[in-house]
Each structure stands twice: as C-alpha cells, then as structure tokens.
Design a protein that fits this description.
There is one protein chain. Helix content is 25%, strand content 48%. It is an alpha+beta fold. The protein folds into two domains: 42-71; 75-233, Porin (Beta Barrel), CATH 2.40.160.20. The protein is elongated and about 105 Å long.
C-alpha cells in the first residue's frame, strides 16, 4: 500500500517537472534602477523637444498674425502725391499737373474704413485757369487682406467748390465761387509696413455737380486723381 501511495504522488510531480522543463519559458528580471533612469532621461528629452517645437509654432503663428491682422478703431493721418487729370469741360480751362492731397482714415472694422480727403489745386492753360477745391468722405471696403497687402474699393460723397477763369464778353473772368455737392469713387491697394506705417496707391474719381452761373457758361466737369499714398497710424 505504501508503495502504491508513493507511486501515486510521484507521477504528478514528475509530470509537472517535465511540463515546466519542456515549456522553456523564463521570466527576465530587469535591472530596474538602471532602466528607470534611462527611461526618465528619454522621456524628459522627448518632452523638451515637443516643448521647443510648440514654442516655435506659437512664435511663427504670432509673427504671422501680427503681420496679417489689422487693428480696429485706429486713426491714420497722411498724404497723397500724384497726378490730377482734368476731364470733361474742366480740361478746357487747365492742364493736368502734380498735386498733393491730405488724407485721414479711421478703421471702423476689419473690413471697412472711413477715408476723408481734402485737396486744392490750380491748373493753367495759357490765359485760362481751373481751380479745384474739395472735401470728401468715402467708405473704404477691403476686398481681401493677405500678409499686410490689401486691395480695396471706395465710394462716397463730398463738398466741392470748383472755379474757372474763362473768357466772358471778351474778358477773362473768374466764375462765381459756389459750394456744390458731388460724388467720388475709386479703388487702390495698401501695403502695411508695420503697426504704424502704410503705403499704397489710390485712384479716385471726383464728379462735382454742375454750378450754375449768371454770366458765361456753367461750370461742369470732373477730374481723376492717381496718387501714391502714405499714412501714419496711431
């Protein structure tokens, strides 16, 4: 009986030993201290790389946004220098010439500006002369803005006081100086150099209404201005 019992307990033990030896699976115990230090150094190095890339992306995005985005509720004061072309009956009394305009702008929103224009010039053609005097207001609508470059269109109303010196009853006489209403429209492009300086090109048509005269012909016509502009923003 003892022999039978010993053989019974011996068989499962031998089976377990043979099974464990046949599987050949061994659990590797790592050097936890060394590997933990290496893992920490690799993780910190990868985190530093990610932080550097994030900082670079933020700096580039901030730089591009500072270049492309405009500031609203900003005033601008500047001038326009270029050619004034007399058209219609205005061309009979004077020749085209270089003139200067005073400009004021106000950024009401990201797409629309208020533009004020004050100008005065005198054009000569032999014994005849033509004076242009105007104070106009326009709404300036930006079509698109990319990297500080923005084309625009504009249109508005204004006050004009044109005056012509022409032959009346055999004598050169100035016409009666009267203030009239008129239209203006045009377009151009702006290039914003930084937060305070803007340069551009402006083409603007001015069309004062006809001024009736007691003597001589009525004063009617229009003129076109092609200007290089410069503005200081504040």
């Amino acid at each position: 009986m003892a022999f039978v019992a010993m053989s019974f307990f011996k068989s499962p033990l031998s089976y377990a030993q043979s099974d464990s030896s046949s599987s050949g699976y061994k659990i590797k115990t790592p050097n936890t201290k060394k590997e933990l230090i290496e893992d920490k150094s690799e993780a910190s190095h990868s985190i530093e790389k990610k932080d550097e890339s994030v900082e670079k992306d933020e700096a580039s995005s901030n730089q591009s946004s500072s270049v492309s985005n405009r500031r609203v509720h900003q005033h601008g004061l500047g001038f326009g220098l270029g050619e004034t072309f007399l058209l219609g009956k205005y061309a009979k009394y004077g020749e085209d010439k270089i003139t200067m305009d005073l400009l004021y702008s106000y950024a009401a929103s990201y797409s629309f500006d208020l533009l004020l224009n004050a100008h005065m010039s005198e054009h000569e053609d032999q014994s005849e002369r033509m004076k242009t005097l105007g104070l106009t207001s326009s709404i300036k609508a930006r079509v698109v803005e990319y990297d500080g470059f923005s084309p625009f269109i504009l249109g508005g109303l204004g006050f004009y006081a044109p005056q012509a010196k022409r032959i009346v009853n055999g004598k050169n006489q100035w016409s009666d100086q009267k203030v009239t209403f008129g239209l203006n429209f045009g377009g151009g492009v702006d290039l914003r150099l930084n937060d305070h300086y803007v340069v551009g090109v402006l083409g603007q048509m001015h069309a004062p209404f006809t001024i009736k005269q007691d003597q001589g012909s009525d004063i009617q016509g229009y003129y076109f201005k092609l200007l290089i502009t410069g503005m200081f923003l504040f």
